[in-house]
Design brief:
about 400 residues, Rossmann fold, 5-stranded mixed sheet, globular, binds ligand L6N33NVT, binds FE2/S2 (inorganic) cluster, binds fe (ii) ion
């Protein structure tokens, strides 16, 4: 990734609101895979001194205008954690992204000219912070020295291609800021690396499904099939041992449990890129096959992302649903501004702050097929913030 803003021009400590303001242009922390939306530190007038609480939201970045699509894709294709092109990355990355830009620009134009991810992420983080202010006052006041920062993934289910890639990026960024490797820095980091079955997340999803079910006539409601749809992964990533498919399935199961298994359901996978083998069944095929079988009442539920983006607004709404040609094929709303969801975020963060843990135990175990030095070093750093955990 090309860092446009020299890192030394950043504030020495993570006084992150300054970074947030740079969102209109690419900045180190607005890597294509690391949209760090930063909630202002929780401040209050109490005298407690547990330290600063900068909440760094890690999320997918997205182009805000169609002009930003080219640079966005070139950052994405330069990211070897996401799209490994080996030594040819510096040559192939720009070529592929350039070729892909016109097609993707049209898709962003069709959803209003840009991605709403940043807008929703900023809303979610600032609303969450207001709640945290009340429920976790002991993390105030903000103190720049010797404090802590929480990297909070906005991907509920962990994948090395999403949260892992963002952490690699954050780790590199942190090293430039504070010195490499084990050098103790001014900031103690901790990571919320996954929360696939948090009851509030499950509740927020379930409510959106129930709301959509109510749009069908009562006598038909039980016959509607629920199609959970998640961004797919290349089979090479799945076979390396990535935990994402299992965690997505866990979310689906938890939502169905909350719904009392009221309807039949399937999990399918969308948005594959390029010609290699990806995890299926594909969402578009699934919808077509069910419609062909006469099952024309279907609710699509985006289950691996917490706000609208091109893959809901374009791929699902304007391609899959449009092509199904059946008024019974619908989509559950994304979590976006859901109050239940924002309360869930605050609860995840609150429990994490209370636990004092550096990250989940699961984060210390690399994929069985992982050969990446960067993963190893990144995990050693984040996991090593707490002594008793080890990295394997
Ligand atoms: C859980 C979410 C996501 C996973 C897992 C994921 C894996 C993954 N993605 C690519 C390649 C691309 N993704 C692109 C866009 C994109 N990806 C996600 C989320 C996940 N990706 C989102 C939310 C978006 C859209 C952002 C927006 O602002 O709307 C793109 C760019 C679009 C395109 O060219 O089609 C690419 C490329 C890979 C290779 C991968 C797993 C290894
Ligand atoms: S690829 Fe999964 S830990 Fe490195
Ligand atoms: Fe993606």
């Amino acid at each position: 990734m090309a860092l446009r803003t020299p890192i030394h021009t950043l504030p020495r400590r993570v006084i992150i609101p300054k970074i947030t303001q740079r969102h209109s242009s690419p900045c180190p922390i607005h890597h294509a895979r690391l949209l760090a939306t930063v909630a202002p530190p929780v401040t209050q007038s109490s005298t407690s001194s547990q330290g600063p609480t900068a909440m760094v939201f890690m999320n997918m970045g997205g182009p805000s205008t169609t002009d930003e699509v080219g640079p966005f894709l070139s950052r994405l294709f330069a990211d070897g954690d996401l799209i490994p092109l080996g030594r040819l990355q510096p040559y192939l990355g720009p070529l592929i992204s350039k070729r892909r830009t016109p097609k993707i620009q049209k898709q962003y134009a069709a959803i209003g000219g840009g991605s709403p991810i940043r807008k929703w992420s900023e809303h979610q983080s600032s609303e969450m912070c207001k709640i945290l202010d009340v429920v976790n006052p002991e993390t105030a006041p903000h103190r720049p020295e010797g404090g802590g920062a929480v990297a909070f993934t906005q991907y509920p289910q962990y994948s090395c291609s999403t949260t892992g890639s963002s952490l690699n990026e954050l780790w590199k960024w942190r090293n430039r800021l504070e010195g490499k490797g084990d050098t103790p820095g001014a900031i103690t980091w901790s990571v919320i690396d996954r929360w696939p079955v948090h009851p509030g997340l499950v509740e927020a999803f379930a409510r959106n499904v129930e709301e959509q079910l109510l749009t069908y006539p009562e006598e038909k409601r039980k016959e509607v099939v629920l199609l959970f749809s998640a961004h797919s992964l290349p089979m090479s990533v799945v076979n390396r041992g990535d935990t994402y498919p299992a965690e997505v399935a866990a979310t689906v199961w938890a939502v169905m449990q909350r719904l009392g298994f009221s309807n039949s359901y399937r999990l399918c996978w969308q948005s594959q890129v390029g010609p290699s083998a990806w995890l299926g069944a594909q969402t578009s095929d699934t919808v077509q096959e069910y419609v062909k079988k006469g099952q024309t009442d279907l609710i699509l539920i985006p289950i691996a992302f917490t706000s609208d983006h091109i893959e809901t607004l374009f791929e699902l709404d304007q391609e899959v649903i449009h092509e199904a040609g059946s008024p019974g094929v619908k989509r559950a709303e994304s979590l976006n501004g859901s109050k239940v969801f924002i309360e869930a975020l605050a609860d995840v963060a609150h429990k994490h702050l209370q636990s004092g843990e550096s990250c989940s135990r699961q984060m210390g175990l690399r994929c069985q097929g992982c050969t990446s030095e960067r993963c190893l070093e990144q995990k050693k750093f984040f996991v090593g913030q707490e002594n008793f955990l080890s990295v394997r």
